[in-house]
Amino acid sequence: MAVREGLAAIALCDHDNIDGVEPAQRESEGLDIEVLAGVEMSVQHREYLDIHLLGYCFDPGNPELTRELASFRQSRESRNAQIVDRINERLRAQGKPTIDFARVAERAGGTVGRPHIAMELIEKKIVANQDEAFNQYLVPCNVEKTYFDIEDAIGLIHRAGGIAVLAHPPFITRDRKELLQLIDLFRDMGLDGVEAYNNGSVQDDVFWLLTQCRRRGLAVTGGSDYHGVDDGLIQLGAGRGSLPIPYSCVEDIRRAMERRFGSGAQRTTHA
């Protein structure tokens, strides 16, 4: 899909799972595209829950990272089954057909996430798109989950040879003063960059984040947050609103790797 869209590079950043990284890199062989190792971790800091932290260019075979993510996924699997149970209670009360968790797991082909539950709701024509799935079912039927501590997660990514980037910061808070305080705190913990191009930002937000990153020596990255559903809301490589993500983000990741690990840092891409 990325090749068809004419993208120069892509990072597969599944939630708390890196099983797809090496297969994606193998699929890129002979194609004109770079594939970066990626992951999106669910972290917390004090009262800030479900902050998303991106890891880039780590070693996908790192045993510590693999072990910690597997342990996290075990607790998450139980949570998703509970969410499906709650959704089915709501569907029965509405006189609508229920969904099968086994079918959701089959669709995921690995770690189940809420977007896979949304896909099943769309497939059964209970909702029209992912936004409806989340607003009508996944948010009201949510089950709280456990999180990595953000400082521990940053250290885990670094020990696996990668850099740590704060994902879609406006989803943490829309208060810019508060957000800057958090970014500065996370930078002191070892944060390497910020996802300035993201689905929570309009163009003015992107420019503001770009400025703050440059002032702080943080890498600027971007992500479409595409979840595999072509519902017209999110475009692969551009996100919501079709704001193209520039290749300079890949170059920033390379520079951040050099700052973190020196000029001998491992290659950031596979092509």
Structure description:
The longest helix has 31 residues, at 63-93. By secondary structure, the protein is an alpha/beta fold. Strands 1, 2, 3, 4, 5, 6 and 7 form a seven-stranded mixed beta sheet that branches. 43% of the residues lie in helices and 15% in strands. The protein has helices at residues 21-27, 63-93, 101-108, 114-123, 130-138, 150-159, 176-189, 203-216, 248-261; strands at residues 9-12, 34-45, 48-56, 148-149, 163-166, 193-197, 219-222. Helix 3 (101-108) crosses helix 4 (114-123) and helix 4 packs across helix 5 (130-138). It has two domains: 9-69 and 148-261, Alpha-Beta Barrel (TIM Barrel), CATH 3.20.20.140; 74-138, no CATH class. Strand 6 (193-197), helix 8 (203-216) and strand 7 form a beta-alpha-beta unit. The two termini are 15 Å apart. It is globular, with a radius of gyration of 18 Å. It has nine helices and seven strands, in the order βαββααααβαβαβαβα.
Number of domains: 2
The counted number of beta strands is 7
Which structural category do the helix and sheet elements fall into? alpha/beta
* Gross geometry: globular
Main features:
TIM Barrel, seven-stranded mixed β-sheet, 9 helices, alpha/beta, 271 residues, 2 domains
Quick summary of this structure?
It is built from nine helices and seven strands. It has helices at residues 21-27, 63-93, 101-108, 114-123, 130-138, 150-159, 176-189, 203-216, 248-261; strands at residues 9-12, 34-45, 48-56, 148-149, 163-166, 193-197, 219-222.
